[in-house]
Give the backbone structure.
Amino acid sequence: MSRAIDSTAARLRQVPPALDVERLRAEFPILKQKVHGKPLVYLDNAATTQKPQSVIDVLGRYYGEINSNIHRGIHTLSQRATHDYEEARAKVQRFISAHSSKEIVFVRGTTEAINLVAQSYARPRLRSGDDIIISEMEHHSNIVPWQLLCEQTGAILKVIPINDAGELIIEEYKNLLGDRTKIVNIAHVSNALGTINPIKAIIEIAHAHNVPVLVDGAQGVPHLRVDVQDLDCDFYAFSGHKLFGPTGVGVLFGKAALLDAMPPYQGGGDMIKAVTFKKTIYNDLPYKFEAGTPHIAGVIALGTAIDYVSGIGLDAIATHEHDLLDYAINAATEIPGLRLIGTARQKTSIFSFVMDGIHPHDLGTVLDNEGVAIRTGHHCAMPVMEHFGVPATARASFALYNTRREIDYLIAGIKKACQVLM
């Protein structure tokens, strides 16, 4: 279990001051409630994070004060909505250090972003016998779109294996790359294991073969400082709802040259300059990929969520989350029969485990009765479960508003489940 306490965590803990967690908790109204008569302990942050009042207020302000469609109106409300929407795009650009706001495409979430790249970038370039590389630890959203693409084109899906710590076997990755490799698709952080992948090295290896890389950043952006120019990734995708923002909104970063060369993913309003029955002229970047009325309120609120996270500081958040992870791992050593799933040396705040003789769903039910919300199941990562020979795991995942006391509740709930179910 001690392998998960890595040198990165030790280094980060030396940098920023401790968070004022109680003050932060007061900014999340949902955390004030009780479940089954007990204070809510929300430890399902890898699935979705809770929202601070500032984000909730922005959603209400949009619908109460400026509700209007964007880019098309000359009236005041439309101009205000357009300004706030595009300001959010600029915030995303700065947050991930993109070169230009033209490289920021708003989508419904990470899943849509990956499908956009699969169908608009990869599909026109694939021929039968070409190959696509993913890893064994990917979320289904970074597996199924590529399987569909293989069925459509005759391409071959190749998989980077992981070891029993939940780490990529880089030598095997190098062996998979070849002249017919057209794209590599990799998670920045595993949602089932918490493994932080060596993304920059993975990209450098691929680029040495002139192969582009898409990074699934759904679990990366909430926990790590992301600089897409430093990483030199070709595409980077993430979702707002895992970053304290609303559901139904996400981001695709793509290098401008690649996006320019890609055909539109969907057709409709706002992605066009001119339409006749003979020909349509498509809009400039990034609007070419934003057909129809977007989730305007959600995009604006995502900008507010980014302001919120940036104001606290990702280094401070990472330090706090690593402390919680270390604390949980150390406390778990006291529980007979508990086995961690995912012990990578580079790991973020995901605590996945199984209990001998107890199904994760039963464990989750007991914990829910204690007011503790965790995730149980395969976490949309069934190949990971197959690798470790388990049908499911229990997963507690931590965020900036969680505390050591809440982990004490989690550990007490696990011990109670052992008494009840064994």
Notes: The chain has two domains: 2-32+313-421, 55-310. Residues 189 and 196 are 5 Å apart (CA to CA).
